[in-house]
TrEMBL record:
Source lineage: Bacteria, Bacillati, Bacillota, Bacilli, Lactobacillales
InterPro entries: Aldolase_TIM, PRAI_dom, RibuloseP-bd_barrel, TrpF_fam
Keywords, alphabetical: Amino-acid biosynthesis, Aromatic amino acid biosynthesis, Isomerase, Tryptophan biosynthesis
CDD domains found in the cross-reference section: PRAI
Organism: Lactiplantibacillus mudanjiangensis
Enzyme class: isomerase
Name this polypeptide is given: N-(5'-phosphoribosyl)anthranilate isomerase
Amino acid sequence: MPRIKLCGLRRLVDIDYANQVQPDLVGVVFAPESFRAVTGDQAQRLRQRLDAKIPMVGVFTTTPLARIMTLVQAGIIQQVQLHGPINDDRVTALQAAKIPVMQAVTPVNATQSQANTVLLDNVNPGSGQPLAWSAIARPKRPFFLAGGLTPDNVTNAIQVLQPAGVDVSSGIETAGVKDFKKIQVFMRSVRNVNNN
């Protein structure tokens, strides 16, 4: 049964949407180059609003390790998602602190990360461009699938690659903001696959 991560949440209303549909994880972006980026203070307000049962994942590119640790220790994020070059030292340091780590990988380097989980994504994450699911080799370890997932294509993607989880951001947006109707349809699509 694939787990569901709704990523790129940045408004309080986005958290209200998540609380209603109950995904397995939500993601907040700390990468400054992303238009979805939030500050530590914003993330804290989002965490306070979020159902305590739903872990919040912090998404990072070049953020210093000490800053990531601070956000975890403050209880703002419960897991870490790393993008960019695979850096086993960062992964090992986070894991030593008992922090679950997800590493974004492309189909080419999916075997190289020592993270707890890998996230199979595009070279340009957050772009909304779908991966060619039928043309890629399925990683030999549990993985989350990202890369252009939408309410319309997620069922096919799950059937082809059988991921442990799915991660969506742009696919549940309209004009760059989260769209509750799209979120509902996405959740229903994944759960229907689970039930069949």
